[in-house]
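Dig into what follows:
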Amino acid sequence: MKPLQINSRFSILFLLLNFCLSPFVFSQGGSSQLRIIMIGAHPDDCDFDGGGTAALFAKMGHAVKFVSVTNGDAGHQTEGGGVLAKRRKAEAEESGKRLGVSYDVLDNHDGELVPNLDVRLQIIRKIREWNADVVIAPRPNDYHPDHRYTGVLVQDAAYMVGVPNVTPHIPPLKKNPVFLYFQDKFQRPNAFRPDITVDISSTFDQKISGLDAHKSQMYEWLPWIGGYSKDVPQSDADRKKWLAQQRTIKINADMRKSLEKWYGKEYSDKVQHAESFEICEYGTQPNDEEIRRLFPMMKKN
Protein backbone atom coordinates (compact mmCIF):
# COMPACT_ATOMS: atom_id res chain seq x y z
CA MET A 1 0.00 0.00 0.00
CA LYS A 2 2.92 2.35 0.56
CA PRO A 3 3.65 2.90 -3.16
CA LEU A 4 -0.05 3.75 -3.62
CA GLN A 5 0.14 6.33 -0.80
CA ILE A 6 3.17 7.95 -2.40
CA ASN A 7 1.46 8.07 -5.77
CA SER A 8 -1.68 9.56 -4.22
CA ARG A 9 0.32 12.24 -2.50
CA PHE A 10 2.11 12.97 -5.74
CA SER A 11 -1.20 13.19 -7.55
CA ILE A 12 -2.59 15.61 -4.99
CA LEU A 13 0.56 17.75 -5.21
CA PHE A 14 0.35 17.71 -8.99
CA LEU A 15 -3.30 18.81 -8.91
CA LEU A 16 -2.53 21.62 -6.49
CA LEU A 17 0.35 22.86 -8.62
CA ASN A 18 -1.80 22.60 -11.72
CA PHE A 19 -4.52 24.66 -10.03
CA CYS A 20 -2.09 27.33 -8.85
CA LEU A 21 -0.47 27.61 -12.26
CA SER A 22 -3.69 27.29 -14.24
CA PRO A 23 -3.64 30.90 -15.52
CA PHE A 24 -0.26 30.19 -17.07
CA VAL A 25 -1.52 27.00 -18.70
CA PHE A 26 -4.82 28.02 -20.18
CA SER A 27 -4.05 31.30 -21.92
CA GLN A 28 -1.19 32.35 -24.20
CA GLY A 29 -2.93 30.60 -27.07
CA GLY A 30 -4.29 27.66 -25.03
CA SER A 31 -7.77 29.10 -24.58
CA SER A 32 -10.29 31.09 -26.55
CA GLN A 33 -10.34 33.68 -23.75
CA LEU A 34 -7.95 36.53 -24.42
CA ARG A 35 -6.06 38.18 -21.56
CA ILE A 36 -5.47 41.91 -21.91
CA ILE A 37 -3.50 44.11 -19.51
CA MET A 38 -3.50 47.90 -19.80
CA ILE A 39 -0.85 49.76 -17.80
CA GLY A 40 -1.06 53.45 -16.99
CA ALA A 41 0.83 55.80 -14.71
CA HIS A 42 -2.17 56.94 -12.63
CA PRO A 43 -5.53 55.53 -11.46
CA ASP A 44 -7.54 56.88 -14.41
CA ASP A 45 -5.06 56.74 -17.30
CA CYS A 46 -6.19 53.39 -18.68
CA ASP A 47 -9.80 54.53 -18.43
CA PHE A 48 -9.03 57.59 -20.55
CA ASP A 49 -7.11 55.79 -23.26
CA GLY A 50 -8.63 52.31 -23.39
CA GLY A 51 -11.84 52.23 -21.36
CA GLY A 52 -14.15 51.67 -24.31
CA THR A 53 -12.01 48.89 -25.79
CA ALA A 54 -11.64 47.26 -22.37
CA ALA A 55 -15.42 47.25 -21.91
CA LEU A 56 -15.84 45.62 -25.33
CA PHE A 57 -13.36 42.86 -24.46
CA ALA A 58 -15.13 42.28 -21.13
CA LYS A 59 -18.56 42.07 -22.79
CA MET A 60 -17.17 39.41 -25.12
CA GLY A 61 -16.02 37.31 -22.16
CA HIS A 62 -12.33 38.16 -22.26
CA ALA A 63 -10.23 39.04 -19.20
CA VAL A 64 -8.99 42.61 -18.80
CA LYS A 65 -6.83 44.11 -16.08
CA PHE A 66 -5.95 47.77 -15.55
CA VAL A 67 -2.74 48.55 -13.64
CA SER A 68 -1.84 51.98 -12.27
CA VAL A 69 1.90 52.15 -11.66
CA THR A 70 1.53 54.96 -9.09
CA ASN A 71 -1.03 55.38 -6.33
CA GLY A 72 -2.07 58.88 -7.42
CA ASP A 73 -1.21 60.48 -4.08
CA ALA A 74 -0.18 63.83 -5.61
CA GLY A 75 -3.03 64.47 -8.04
CA HIS A 76 -5.19 66.98 -6.21
CA GLN A 77 -5.18 70.64 -5.26
CA THR A 78 -6.24 70.27 -1.61
CA GLU A 79 -5.79 66.58 -0.72
CA GLY A 80 -2.67 64.43 -0.81
CA GLY A 81 -0.66 61.59 0.66
CA GLY A 82 -2.26 58.46 2.05
CA VAL A 83 -5.76 59.94 2.26
CA LEU A 84 -5.78 60.79 -1.45
CA ALA A 85 -4.17 57.47 -2.39
CA LYS A 86 -6.93 55.63 -0.53
CA ARG A 87 -9.61 57.71 -2.23
CA ARG A 88 -8.15 57.15 -5.69
CA LYS A 89 -7.82 53.41 -5.15
CA ALA A 90 -11.51 53.26 -4.22
CA GLU A 91 -12.36 55.28 -7.34
CA ALA A 92 -10.31 52.91 -9.49
CA GLU A 93 -12.06 49.88 -8.03
CA GLU A 94 -15.46 51.45 -8.71
CA SER A 95 -14.43 52.25 -12.28
CA GLY A 96 -13.30 48.65 -12.72
CA LYS A 97 -16.74 47.42 -11.65
CA ARG A 98 -18.44 49.74 -14.13
CA LEU A 99 -16.19 48.63 -16.99
CA GLY A 100 -16.12 44.94 -16.09
CA VAL A 101 -12.35 44.82 -15.50
CA SER A 102 -10.04 44.20 -12.54
CA TYR A 103 -8.03 47.19 -11.36
CA ASP A 104 -4.68 47.09 -9.54
CA VAL A 105 -3.00 50.17 -8.05
CA LEU A 106 0.70 49.84 -7.22
CA ASP A 107 2.12 51.67 -4.22
CA ASN A 108 4.60 54.01 -5.95
CA HIS A 109 4.38 57.76 -5.31
CA ASP A 110 2.62 59.92 -7.88
CA GLY A 111 4.98 62.45 -9.49
CA GLU A 112 8.08 60.58 -8.34
CA LEU A 113 8.13 57.61 -10.71
CA VAL A 114 11.51 56.65 -12.17
CA PRO A 115 12.31 53.70 -14.44
CA ASN A 116 14.33 51.73 -11.91
CA LEU A 117 14.80 47.98 -11.52
CA ASP A 118 12.36 47.65 -8.62
CA VAL A 119 9.41 49.07 -10.55
CA ARG A 120 10.40 47.16 -13.69
CA LEU A 121 10.19 43.92 -11.72
CA GLN A 122 6.78 44.95 -10.38
CA ILE A 123 5.54 45.32 -13.95
CA ILE A 124 7.13 42.06 -15.13
CA ARG A 125 5.33 40.27 -12.30
CA LYS A 126 1.98 41.85 -13.18
CA ILE A 127 2.28 40.88 -16.85
CA ARG A 128 3.29 37.33 -15.98
CA GLU A 129 0.65 36.87 -13.30
CA TRP A 130 -2.01 37.99 -15.75
CA ASN A 131 -0.49 35.77 -18.46
CA ALA A 132 -1.12 38.55 -20.92
CA ASP A 133 -1.71 38.09 -24.63
CA VAL A 134 -1.76 41.86 -25.18
CA VAL A 135 -0.05 44.61 -23.15
CA ILE A 136 -1.01 48.26 -23.73
CA ALA A 137 0.87 51.22 -22.22
CA PRO A 138 1.80 54.85 -23.00
CA ARG A 139 4.44 55.82 -25.48
CA PRO A 140 7.62 57.11 -23.79
CA ASN A 141 7.12 60.64 -25.13
CA ASP A 142 4.57 62.62 -23.14
CA TYR A 143 4.22 65.84 -21.14
CA HIS A 144 4.05 64.00 -17.80
CA PRO A 145 7.21 62.26 -16.50
CA ASP A 146 5.13 59.50 -14.89
CA HIS A 147 3.55 58.75 -18.28
CA ARG A 148 6.91 58.76 -20.05
CA TYR A 149 8.54 56.51 -17.48
CA THR A 150 5.61 54.09 -17.48
CA GLY A 151 6.21 53.71 -21.21
CA VAL A 152 9.92 53.10 -20.62
CA LEU A 153 9.22 50.60 -17.82
CA VAL A 154 6.85 48.55 -19.96
CA GLN A 155 9.29 48.59 -22.86
CA ASP A 156 12.03 47.41 -20.49
CA ALA A 157 9.75 44.59 -19.36
CA ALA A 158 8.82 43.53 -22.90
CA TYR A 159 11.70 41.10 -23.37
CA MET A 160 12.20 40.15 -19.74
CA VAL A 161 8.71 38.64 -19.30
CA GLY A 162 10.07 35.56 -21.06
CA VAL A 163 13.44 35.31 -19.26
CA PRO A 164 13.22 32.53 -16.61
CA ASN A 165 15.99 33.86 -14.35
CA VAL A 166 14.30 37.24 -13.92
CA THR A 167 11.78 37.05 -11.02
CA PRO A 168 12.19 33.24 -11.13
CA HIS A 169 9.43 32.63 -8.54
CA ILE A 170 6.84 33.47 -11.24
CA PRO A 171 6.93 31.30 -14.39
CA PRO A 172 8.00 33.19 -17.53
CA LEU A 173 5.47 33.61 -20.32
CA LYS A 174 5.57 30.92 -22.98
CA LYS A 175 5.09 33.52 -25.70
CA ASN A 176 5.99 37.18 -25.69
CA PRO A 177 2.76 39.24 -25.76
CA VAL A 178 1.89 41.82 -28.38
CA PHE A 179 2.81 45.22 -26.93
CA LEU A 180 0.82 48.26 -27.99
CA TYR A 181 0.82 51.99 -27.26
CA PHE A 182 -2.13 54.10 -26.21
CA GLN A 183 -3.03 56.99 -28.48
CA ASP A 184 -1.61 60.47 -27.87
CA LYS A 185 -1.22 63.78 -29.70
CA PHE A 186 2.53 64.30 -29.36
CA GLN A 187 4.49 64.83 -32.57
CA ARG A 188 8.14 64.65 -31.50
CA PRO A 189 10.28 62.69 -31.96
CA ASN A 190 7.56 60.85 -33.92
CA ALA A 191 3.80 61.09 -34.20
CA PHE A 192 1.42 58.38 -33.02
CA ARG A 193 0.45 55.85 -35.70
CA PRO A 194 -3.06 54.29 -35.44
CA ASP A 195 -2.25 50.70 -36.47
CA ILE A 196 -5.38 49.38 -34.74
CA THR A 197 -8.57 51.39 -34.30
CA VAL A 198 -11.55 50.00 -32.41
CA ASP A 199 -15.13 51.22 -32.76
CA ILE A 200 -16.24 51.94 -29.19
CA SER A 201 -19.56 53.59 -30.07
CA SER A 202 -21.47 50.84 -28.26
CA THR A 203 -19.41 51.20 -25.06
CA PHE A 204 -18.73 54.94 -25.08
CA ASP A 205 -21.36 55.64 -22.41
CA GLN A 206 -19.85 52.85 -20.30
CA LYS A 207 -16.41 54.42 -20.72
CA ILE A 208 -17.79 57.74 -19.49
CA SER A 209 -19.39 55.96 -16.55
CA GLY A 210 -15.98 54.52 -15.66
CA LEU A 211 -14.36 57.94 -15.88
CA ASP A 212 -17.17 59.41 -13.78
CA ALA A 213 -16.09 57.10 -10.94
CA HIS A 214 -12.82 59.09 -10.75
CA LYS A 215 -14.57 62.12 -9.22
CA SER A 216 -11.43 63.52 -7.61
CA GLN A 217 -9.91 63.81 -11.08
CA MET A 218 -12.74 64.49 -13.50
CA TYR A 219 -14.54 67.16 -11.47
CA GLU A 220 -11.88 68.49 -9.08
CA TRP A 221 -8.18 68.12 -9.91
CA LEU A 222 -8.12 68.22 -13.73
CA PRO A 223 -10.52 71.21 -13.98
CA TRP A 224 -8.47 73.01 -11.31
CA ILE A 225 -5.05 72.43 -12.87
CA GLY A 226 -6.52 73.09 -16.33
CA GLY A 227 -8.15 76.35 -15.28
CA TYR A 228 -11.74 75.39 -16.11
CA SER A 229 -13.23 74.58 -12.69
CA LYS A 230 -16.03 77.07 -13.27
CA ASP A 231 -17.25 74.95 -16.21
CA VAL A 232 -17.97 71.85 -14.10
CA PRO A 233 -21.77 71.39 -13.69
CA GLN A 234 -23.28 70.78 -10.28
CA SER A 235 -25.70 67.89 -10.82
CA ASP A 236 -24.53 64.32 -11.45
CA ALA A 237 -26.52 64.02 -14.68
CA ASP A 238 -25.16 67.27 -16.10
CA ARG A 239 -21.64 66.30 -15.06
CA LYS A 240 -21.80 63.06 -17.04
CA LYS A 241 -23.05 64.88 -20.15
CA TRP A 242 -20.30 67.46 -19.76
CA LEU A 243 -17.70 64.73 -19.21
CA ALA A 244 -18.80 62.96 -22.41
CA GLN A 245 -18.24 66.19 -24.34
CA GLN A 246 -14.85 66.70 -22.69
CA ARG A 247 -13.61 63.19 -23.36
CA THR A 248 -14.82 62.52 -26.89
CA ILE A 249 -11.83 61.71 -29.11
CA LYS A 250 -12.14 63.35 -32.51
CA ILE A 251 -11.71 60.75 -35.23
CA ASN A 252 -9.06 62.18 -37.56
CA ALA A 253 -8.24 61.10 -41.10
CA ASP A 254 -5.61 58.55 -40.03
CA MET A 255 -7.97 56.95 -37.54
CA ARG A 256 -10.74 56.84 -40.15
CA LYS A 257 -8.37 55.12 -42.59
CA SER A 258 -7.50 52.56 -39.91
CA LEU A 259 -11.20 51.96 -39.19
CA GLU A 260 -11.79 51.41 -42.91
CA LYS A 261 -9.05 48.77 -43.00
CA TRP A 262 -10.49 46.79 -40.10
CA TYR A 263 -14.24 47.33 -40.55
CA GLY A 264 -14.76 48.29 -44.20
CA LYS A 265 -15.50 51.75 -45.61
CA GLU A 266 -19.28 51.77 -45.39
CA TYR A 267 -19.22 50.84 -41.71
CA SER A 268 -16.22 52.99 -40.77
CA ASP A 269 -17.84 56.17 -42.10
CA LYS A 270 -20.59 55.77 -39.49
CA VAL A 271 -18.36 55.22 -36.44
CA GLN A 272 -18.84 57.97 -33.85
CA HIS A 273 -16.37 56.99 -31.14
CA ALA A 274 -13.08 55.10 -31.43
CA GLU A 275 -9.82 54.29 -29.64
CA SER A 276 -6.55 53.68 -31.48
CA PHE A 277 -3.39 51.78 -30.63
CA GLU A 278 0.09 51.60 -32.15
CA ILE A 279 2.11 48.39 -32.39
CA CYS A 280 5.33 48.59 -30.37
CA GLU A 281 8.49 47.29 -32.01
CA TYR A 282 9.16 45.17 -28.92
CA GLY A 283 7.33 41.94 -28.20
CA THR A 284 5.59 39.72 -30.72
CA GLN A 285 5.05 41.42 -34.08
CA PRO A 286 1.55 40.50 -35.23
CA ASN A 287 0.34 40.22 -38.81
CA ASP A 288 -3.19 41.24 -39.76
CA GLU A 289 -4.58 37.78 -39.09
CA GLU A 290 -3.15 37.78 -35.56
CA ILE A 291 -4.48 41.29 -34.91
CA ARG A 292 -7.97 40.15 -35.89
CA ARG A 293 -7.65 37.20 -33.51
CA LEU A 294 -6.54 39.48 -30.68
CA PHE A 295 -9.22 42.08 -31.45
CA PRO A 296 -12.22 39.94 -32.38
CA MET A 297 -14.59 42.93 -32.20
CA MET A 298 -13.01 44.28 -35.41
CA LYS A 299 -15.05 42.55 -38.09
CA LYS A 300 -15.42 43.58 -41.71
CA ASN A 301 -18.97 44.80 -42.28
About this structure: DSSP finds twelve helices and seven strands in the chain. The first strand starts at residue 35 and ends at 40. The beta strands are 35-40, 63-68, 102-105, 134-137, 178-182, 196-199, 274-283. The chain has a mean pLDDT of 91.
